Amino acid sequence: MTMCKSELEKFGNKFVSILNNNELIASFDDSCFRDYLLQINIRNKLIKLGKINVYYKPSKKSYSLTTTNIKDNQAIDIINKCWDEANGFKSFTQDSGIYEAFVDGSYIDGKTGYGAVIFFGDKEVQKFSGRLDDTSTRQFGGELYSATLVLKWCELNNIKKIRINYDYLGIEYFATGKWNPKNVLAQEYKEIVTNCNVDILWRKIDSHTGNKKNDLADKLAKEGAGK
Q: Is 124 helix (H, G, I), strand (E, B) or coil?
């Protein structure tokens, strides 16, 4: 019996339907299943483009994606957008007027890094990466500092509304009062968010689930810790 076939099949049908509505032809059959894995065949109207892999992680009930077998960059862009839609992580368009930020922190070899990237639609408009001198709060400090930089950037550039995408719940929960900040860093973070003049939307995106914008924030945080 193939492990997690039913979960993969249900999600795969949803993902394939979205792909087929966005200029690609996607399909799979029973031979495409492995334990925790579904391979989906991708082609356009002219040629076969290869296979993409969808993995399921039961402990988190989450899916991840790899597109390494696809060499067509335009197809990869379409696949990534369809992936975000299938997972409920579709980005705002420029017509909405709402900016998107993706933030992350990292702790590597005793060093704390932060990373953030801001988009307007699919256009990257700003990114941050660096290392904190204070490593006592480890990765947690990088997470909160990256969100703080995003809000400061918004105020400097007169941006009135932004969605902050994160993988650490404290980014939202300290700001909204769902969690009580017990250390100085969290208290300062909550004060900054409370006093800023930016309308903030919050969205959690689990790390390493195939969202390329989220992955970029993760990469920037790791680079910051490695500087």
A: strand
